[in-house]
Write a sequence for this structure.
């Protein structure tokens, strides 16, 4: 899902330069440029930061988007799910539709060997539940690291700085449920 043209349209309507949006959102200017030029889709976290900086609801970013279904969407027998690149070696697949009307957001996180997610710091009151389907991961929350293997779980306050690493040799698959839906 390429939202770059929509972000550019909203940014320019507010008279903001790319550097202004980078400063307001905390998203690197190079990342914003690549998103606007449809060279990358960005992460769910970057979309939320951009929407907040533009002072629009995140759903405004997804109006009139360009879809590249063969690259960014997976067909299931009943529905389409959206796939977001989280970092160079991680991706998030949203496992439900109409997430903005939900109280929780279930995600399938896949992390390549020696990969990790970007650092996250969600708003106060946000909680996460992690369930490891396959592989072995380390979750760093503030200064503490938790090692989880297949069928292990962790529930934590997601407003604390955190990220997930795959130290194994195979792709790690993890169910992540965030509540409330992180916007």
């Amino acid at each position: 899902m390429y939202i770059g043209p929509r972000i550019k349209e909203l940014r320019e309507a507010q008279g903001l330069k790319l550097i202004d949006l980078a400063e307001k959102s905390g998203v690197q200017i190079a990342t914003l440029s690549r998103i606007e030029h449809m060279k990358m889709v960005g992460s769910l976290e970057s979309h939320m930061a951009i929407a907040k900086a533009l002072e629009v609801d995140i759903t405004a970013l997804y109006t009139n988007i360009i879809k590249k279904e063969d690259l960014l969407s997976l067909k299931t027998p009943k529905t389409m799910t959206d796939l977001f690149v989280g970092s160079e070696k991680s991706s998030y697949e949203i496992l439900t539709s109409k997430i903005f009307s939900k109280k929780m957001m279930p995600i399938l996180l896949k992390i390549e060997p020696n990969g990790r997610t970007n650092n996250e710091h969600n708003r106060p009151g946000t909680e996460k539940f992690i369930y490891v389907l396959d592989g072995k991961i380390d979750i760093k929350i503030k200064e503490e690291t938790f090692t989880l293997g297949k069928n292990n779980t962790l529930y934590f306050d997601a407003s604390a700085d955190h990220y997930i690493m795959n130290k194994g040799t195979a792709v790690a698959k993890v169910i992540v449920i965030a509540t409330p839906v992180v916007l």
Remarks:
- The mean pLDDT is 82.
- The chain has two domains: 4-62, 71-179.
- Helices lie at 4-13, 18-25, 29-36, 44-54, 69-72.
